[in-house]
Design goal:
19 strands; six-stranded mixed beta sheet; tRNA-uracil-4 sulfurtransferase activity; 3 domains; alpha/beta; eight-stranded mixed beta sheet; VC0802-like; Rossmann fold; Oxidized Rhodanese, domain 1; tRNA binding
Length: about 500
Amino acid sequence: MSETVQRTTETVREGAGFPGFRRGILVRMGGEIYTKSSKTRRRFLRALVDNIKLALRESGLEATVRPEWSRVRVYAEDLRRTREALGRVFGVYSVAEVVEVPYASLEDLVAKVAPMFREHVAGRTFAVRARRRRAPFTSQDVGRELGAALLPFSAGVNLDEPEAEVRLEVGRERAFVILEESRGPGGFPAGTGGRALALFSGGFDSPVAAWQVMRRGIRVDLVIYDLGGCGQVGQALAVARELALRWAPGLEMRANVVDLAPVVSALVRRVDPRLRQILLKRAMYRAGSILAEELGFEALVTGESLGQVSTQTLRNLAVAEEAASVPVLRPLVGSDKQEIIETARKIGTHDVSALVKEHCSIATGPVETWADPEEVLTAESGLDQDVDESWLRRTVANRRVIRLKSWDPTAEESPDYVVDRVPEGAVVVDIREPGEGEPVGDLRLPFSRAMESLDRLDRSREYLLVCASGRRSELLAREMLGRGYRAYSLEGGVDRLAGAVSA
């Protein structure tokens, strides 16, 4: 919003006021909507109105919403908060706080509007900016007559660089005097473009990519992969929550946390370092596709940008995408890092994304930049004994689903079997895979082979399970409890063990 428009609001409100005139909000739709067929445009308008009502309801605002063919009028008590809420609804091109002025003639309109702006133009150069919508006279007529009425109170007319502006939209029987106007996100209303699942790490790229497709009318849920020692799940969830609160007003957005730490371990143990990152990406695509199909979503969304890192060459992207069974959307494919960071600032995710640590690389040297598809498939086939298709489906089925807007990491209650200390006399079981670090505790029982080994454990003992982050140990402890064992999971994973003295 320009400084001139800000001054319009301040001086007009401090001046004569608006006795007898109704104030409200004028919402204009994104320009692309006007190019659609009548049937599609009606569908988009219905979706926009529904989303406006949901956004207002979530903000606790009572309002009357009146749709028209090319805009929506909203009347509410708290106009400032209403305008802020509507400025985050996709499909909204602009939001203006207005005064509604009914009139019988051009002379009547000028007589009613001119007193509102006398103090605003006093001692300043000014310009009248009028838009016409089926009015019985032209916008030039309005500018000429209203300008003439205000000229004696001003320092003159300056159409190029005025110190003050008088802005209004004139319809057939009423005009809307614009006090303050701000841009909305534009695009298409949420829900008009289908649904997609965004692969989400929380860094700068993934929230911007999700926002870009949301702006095209796509409803988005997220999948966050827990990669064990490489994962930053809590930080990614914090970014996801910020995205949901800012850009899904009135709508639900969920995050699905899927444990792929065993995949990371299997890659480290069994795969040439050159290919590990590519195979990890293929596993992410495969798991994401399984989840998207289960949820009935049409596509995956990623924050990949062509050539940004070694796994994002054209060949590597093509090889990775072969593992997906649904389309993969890459809205940032032609963007550079600076453009992405600037967009992150614009949409409000930059500061929380800046706190997210980059996922660690599981390659110990150069990464293949032009992968051979046959070599990749051969390497992938060697993982099937640990993380085959059935394993992926199980880990997707065991995912953690989080309603982002109500998620509060400080208020989450852990199950009784999740503890922060070593129970006295408990056998400490390290369930990490061999490639995840030196063994700790009393027993090493890799998670990938734990299910078939549980019955060999002494049922008279208590067990404390430890993994990289606490996610796998929680799942296995729950399984053991169901089988009649006394088992616990150490909250926070192996890094917590050194300070977890016996209770």
